[in-house]
């Protein structure tokens, strides 16, 4: 022992000389220098550890490769394998050259990449691998995806968000995607998952990086993520052993203490490791922690402790994989000793790979000196180096191929990433309170909803998605009393707490924010939605006044969209709280909510569609605009109840001053027939007020004794009644000079002249009676054949208004639009909406002599004051999709049954197909021959309508697809219908059907 002591003393004297004289490293004399580990670290290959399975056995060729490489290495090369150096792809040539030098001169074994970009990193990886005699390990700390470290890559939810998910298949799927991306970027290690059980809510560095505080849930999630990662031949790393969850200090800044007994550590912190080892975890990262129950030396980092790294982790727990230190530049260990001393002691403690070490050249000199003094043996060195080489062979580095940089960005940012992101948030978002079933919001026709923002981060996606479901008003006032006054008339107030989604940024509620929420909750029916870590709720004394409480975990765009879906019932709540919130909510709390059959939002891939094919719609729409077939377009596609494509193109007019937005409102022309009139007719049919055989004379007394009295309801709505296509009703309002007669028109509203058809143009209120008299007296075709006629729906409008005592515009709002949340749909939109939201349809040079913006384009509908059965509705693609989805669901939407399934089936039947008439009862149907309204790809059960202004709405029960196309192709003048001749609507529909994954 005397000789050993002399060797150690000589070693440190010589090392101090080398460190101070040769390298210039300053030594803090107050810090302990001599480690307390066995002088000759044991070779664990000779220790019988049987409680965990062997990770993998190499084939004989692999063993030969390992032995051959090891035996051909110099001592410097062997020692170099122990180092994994920090590398960046966003730094300058000086940094790159420094890495080159470490590879060439110090023979380092690997790199851990931090900030930069994927293509730059790939090129540097190729460069560095080409310089290295022995292939390098390439790793990255990408707990929530490559986006954690490098730009232009995908970022998934944090572990705490994932901890709310109950479906482990989703977590494994996430791991698989992360593994695929890592492999594509030429990595072998992802330093994930985090196994720390976050039992301390004040933990400043783990927190949201943990799956939660329940050891079973943490373990289940970690195993699933690991399996996914390792299924792609990427090694996963469990961290931070022995457990970093129960601390209030950050090991990046100081050495945290874990004051837990050995028994508690075994029961809690070690639990995930026990399970993970049996599931094949490849590697472990040892944290920088002071754990008195495992290490007797005071304030001694666990990463340097032989007892923790070797005795506990390897011998007692039986771990056989690679062991990494946490980054050795962290203050939790780097402040303890000089870098080379820290690095050497980490190796002597039993670690295989020294991560992010400082001063590698000096460290290697220290290693060589120690080796010459027999302070560690060739056997100990071979134990780690051969293990490293085995993993390199397993990773395929024995036949390394450079990373292909072509298509790298697109390969890392596949649409499947976003598809999974939707699924993850759909399963994570958690409802903690739902007093009186305030969630989901129902009975939209009886609701008046306000939204109030708290916090300093973006809320655009949340608000815009909420407003796709209902008329949600954003209300704001810095003065709380004034805000309360503004909110007094609202039935429901949604409060969104939006904090930055940047990692480690403080998202605690400020005192003023907390007081504002509490005050609003006391005086209003409040739904509080927290787009922040659940620990932000710790600030509340109670939640008594809050009716609905939702935790959305993060303020990402998809989180906002999905959370709005939950608020209105497009999805149900599935998440469970991963941590406890004081005594109010326990870990695993989470309420389920009712799912309403309202349209939701997702990616195409989640409903069996190909988004890349769908993107071809963009080209068709843009070409139509470029060729001046129309100045602007809205397109929406939904499948299986989910909107998967919604875009707007072009401008309101060709002067390109106002871009088309998804919220803009178009004159939908003849879509009015199935959006405004037909739904109300179906109610009457459902109530047995009419049937398919009911005659027009029975429905409307004005048709008794006319040539139309025996026309059946079925014939009428199938355009099989012989009615003319239209009549020149406007002529009845002209004087002898063929100008608008003063008997019918006024420039300002007067008594009996309140129906407006343009700026400074009002028509006599009873002109509708004149129109109906002209229809009654009109001729009909003697030959029974298909002939499309607007008169059908003008007759139906008159029938509805006379039998209900309400005008059609009132009926459709009361019976459908309000309860459906079609808050962007209306006849005569200027009474409700800003004119700048409405693209103009035409510069009328033949009757009204003005720009038609917000006034119905169809002259006959205009003569009825903008409310007719065949035209007059203004809407946007989202609202149109709602009523088309209602049809697709056979009269049901939002769990409200508007009419029976039988009624829908009766109306969606083609009764005269055998006679060559494709029409259903009110609905248009696919062509029977080569030409017609569709691409020829929709099923025969599909239905819809087209409109004169360049519109189309179509739904297909067989594919569950809803397609909406809106435009103002009639602007500036309605001449040749080039949009129709070019089959723009049909070509887009063909793309939609081509996108179905079969």
What features would you describe in this structure?
Helices cover 35% and strands 13% of the residues. Helix 7 (168-184) runs parallel beside helix 8 (215-230). The protein is built from 34 helices and 30 strands. The protein has 998 residues and is an alpha/beta fold.
Mean pLDDT across all amino acids = 94
Task: Describe the global form.
Answer: elongated
Q: Termini separation (Å)?
A: 76 Å
- How many β-strands, per DSSP? 30
Alpha carbon gyration radius:
36 Å
Low-pLDDT parts are: 12-41
Tell me the major beta sheet.
Answer: 8 strands, parallel
The fraction of residues assigned to DSSP E strands is: 5-15%
Helical element count? 34
What proportion of the residues is helical, as a percent range? Answer: 25-40%
Task: Write out key terms for the chains shown.
alpha/beta; 8-stranded parallel β-sheet; 6-stranded mixed β-sheet
Write the SSE topology.
Elements: H1 2-22, H2 60-71, H3 75-80, E1 83-87, H4 93-106, E2 110-113, H5 118-131, E3 137-140, H6 159-162, H7 168-184, E4 189-190, H8 215-230, E5 235-241, H9 262-269, H10 271-278, E6 283-286, H11 306-316, E7 322-325, H12 331-334, H13 339-349, E8 354-355, H14 360-372, H15 378-394, H16 408-412, H17 415-428, E9 430-434, E10 449-454, H18 460-469, E11 472-474, H19 480-487, E12 492-498, H20 511-523, E13 526-531, E14 548-551, H21 557-567, E15 600-601, H22 611-614, H23 616-626, E16 632-639, E17 642-650, E18 666-667, H24 672-686, H25 696-699, H26 713-717, E19 745-746, E20 755-758, E21 761-763, H27 767-777, H28 791-804, H29 808-820, E22 826-827, E23 842-844, E24 850-852, H30 859-863, E25 873-875, H31 877-888, E26 892-893, E27 896-897, H32 901-907, E28 943-947, E29 951-956, E30 961-967, H33 978-981, H34 984-994
Parallel strand pairs: 1-2, 1-8, 2-3, 3-4, 4-5, 5-6, 6-7, 10-11, 10-12, 12-13, 13-14, 15-17
Antiparallel strand pairs: 9-14, 16-17, 16-30, 18-25, 19-21, 20-21, 22-25, 23-24, 26-27, 28-29, 29-30
Helix pairs in contact: 1-14, 2-15, 7-8, 7-17, 8-10, 13-14, 17-21, 18-21, 23-34, 24-28, 24-29
């Amino acid at each position: 022992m005397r000789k050993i002591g002399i060797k150690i003393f000589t070693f440190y004297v010589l090392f101090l000389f080398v460190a101070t004289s040769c390298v210039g490293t300053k030594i803090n004399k107050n810090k302990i220098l001599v480690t307390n580990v066995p002088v000759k670290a044991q070779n664990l290959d000779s220790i019988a550890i049987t409680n965990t399975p062997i990770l993998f056995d190499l084939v004989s060729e692999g063993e030969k490769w390992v032995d051959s490489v090891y035996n051909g290495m110099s001592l410097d090369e062997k020692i170099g394998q122990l180092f994994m150096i920090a590398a960046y792809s966003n730094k300058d040539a000086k940094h790159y050259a420094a890495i080159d030098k470490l590879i060439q001169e110090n023979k380092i074994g690997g790199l851990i990449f931090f900030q930069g970009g994927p293509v730059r990193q790939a090129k540097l990886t190729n460069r560095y691998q080409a310089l290295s005699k022995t292939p390098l390990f390439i790793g990255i700390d990408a707990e929530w995806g490559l986006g954690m470290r490098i730009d232009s890559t995908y970022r998934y939810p944090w572990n705490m968000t994932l901890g709310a998910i109950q479906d482990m298949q989703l977590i494994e799927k996430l791991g698989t995607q992360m593994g695929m991306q890592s492999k594509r970027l030429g990595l072998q290690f992802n330093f994930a998952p985090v196994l720390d059980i976050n039992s301390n809510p004040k933990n400043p560095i783990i927190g949201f990086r943990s799956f939660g505080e329940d050891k079973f849930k943490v373990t289940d999630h970690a195993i699933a993520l690991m399996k996914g990662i390792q299924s792609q031949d990427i090694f996963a790393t469990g961290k931070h052993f022995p457990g970093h969850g129960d601390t209030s200090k950050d090991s990046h800044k100081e050495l945290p203490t874990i004051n837990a007994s050995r028994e508690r550590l075994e029961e809690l912190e070690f639990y995930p490791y026990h399970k993970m080892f049996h599931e094949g975890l490849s590697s472990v990262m040892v944290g920088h922690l002071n754990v008195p129950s495992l290490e007797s030396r005071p304030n001694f980092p666990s990463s340097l402790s032989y007892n923790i790294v070797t005795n506990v982790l390897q011998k007692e727990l039986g771990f056989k994989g690679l062991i990494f230190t946490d980054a050795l530049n962290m203050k939790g260990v780097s402040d303890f000793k000089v870098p080379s001393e820290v690095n050497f002691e980490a190796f002597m403690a039993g670690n295989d790979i020294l991560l992010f070490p400082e001063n590698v050249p000096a460290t290697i000199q220290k290693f060589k000196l120690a080796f010459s003094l027999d302070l560690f043996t060739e056997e100990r060195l071979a134990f780690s180096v051969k293990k490293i080489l085995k993993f390199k062979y397993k990773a395929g580095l024995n036949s390394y191929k450079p990373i292909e940089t072509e298509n790298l960005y697109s390969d890392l940012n596949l649409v499947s990433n976003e598809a999974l992101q939707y699924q993850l948030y759909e399963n994570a978002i958690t409802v903690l309170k739902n007093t009186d079933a305030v969630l989901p919001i129902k009975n939209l026709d009886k609701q008046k909803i306000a939204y109030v923002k708290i916090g300093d981060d973006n809320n655009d996606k949340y608000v815009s998605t909420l407003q796709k479901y209902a008329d949600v008003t954003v209300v704001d006032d810095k003065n709380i009393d004034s805000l309360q006054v503004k909110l007094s008339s609202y039935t429901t107030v949604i409060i969104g707490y939006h904090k930055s989604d940047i990692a480690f940024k403080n998202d605690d509620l400020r005192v003023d924010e907390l007081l504002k929420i509490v005050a609003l909750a006391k005086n209003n029916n409040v739904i509080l939605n927290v787009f922040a870590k659940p620990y932000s709720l710790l600030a509340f004394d109670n939640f008594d006044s809050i009716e609905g409480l939702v935790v959305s975990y993060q303020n990402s765009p998809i989180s906002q969209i999905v959370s709005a879906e939950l608020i209105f019932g497009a999805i149900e709540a599935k998440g469970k709280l991963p941590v406890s919130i004081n005594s109010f909510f326990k870990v695993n709390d989470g309420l389920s909510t009712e799912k309403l059959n309202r349209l939701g939002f997702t990616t195409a891939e989640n409903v069996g569609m190909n988004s890349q094919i769908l993107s071809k719609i963009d080209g068709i729409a843009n070409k139509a605009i470029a060729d001046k077939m129309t100045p602007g377009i809205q397109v929406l596609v939904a499948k299986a109840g989910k909107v998967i494509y919604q875009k707007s193109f072009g401008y309101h007019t060709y002067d390109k001053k106002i871009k088309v937005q998804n919220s803009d409102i178009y004159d939908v022309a003849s879509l009015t027939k199935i959006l405004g009139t037909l739904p109300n007719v179906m109610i009457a049919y459902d109530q047995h007020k009419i049937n398919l055989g009911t005659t027009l004379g029975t429905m409307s007394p004005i048709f008794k004794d006319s040539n139309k009295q025996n026309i059946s309801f079925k014939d009428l709505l199938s355009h099989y009644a012989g009615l003319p296509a239209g009549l020149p009703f406007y002529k009845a309002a002209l004087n002898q000079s063929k100008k608008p007669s003063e008997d019918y028109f006024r420039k300002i509203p007067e008594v009996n002249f309140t129906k407006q058809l343009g700026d400074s143009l009002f028509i006599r209120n009873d002109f509708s009676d004149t129109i109906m008299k002209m229809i009654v007296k009109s001729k009909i075709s003697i030959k029974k054949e298909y002939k499309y006629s607007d008169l059908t729906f003008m007759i139906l409008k008159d029938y509805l208004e006379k039998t209900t005592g309400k005008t059609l515009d009132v009926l459709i709002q009361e019976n459908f639009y309000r309860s459906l949340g079609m808050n962007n749909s209306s006849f005569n939109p200027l009474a409700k909406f800003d004119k700048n939201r409405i693209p103009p349809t035409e510069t009328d040079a033949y009757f009204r002599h003005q720009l038609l913006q917000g006034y119905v384009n169809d002259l006959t509908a205009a003569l009825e004051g903008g409310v007719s059965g065949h035209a007059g509705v203004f809407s946007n693609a989202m609202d149109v999709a709602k009523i088309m989805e209602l049809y697709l669901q056979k009269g049901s939407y939002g769990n409200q049954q508007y009419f029976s399934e039988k009624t829908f089936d009766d109306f969606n039947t083609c009764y005269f197909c055998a006679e060559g008439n494709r029409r259903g009862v009110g609905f248009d149907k696919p062509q029977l021959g080569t030409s017609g309204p569709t691409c020829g790809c929709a099923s025969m059960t599909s239905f819809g309508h087209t409109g004169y202004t360049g519109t189309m709405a179509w739904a297909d029960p067989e594919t569950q697809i809803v397609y909406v196309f809106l435009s103002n192709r009639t602007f500036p003048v309605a001449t040749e219908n080039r949009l129709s001749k070019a089959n723009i609507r049909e070509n887009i529909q063909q793309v939609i059907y081509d996108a179905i994954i079969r």
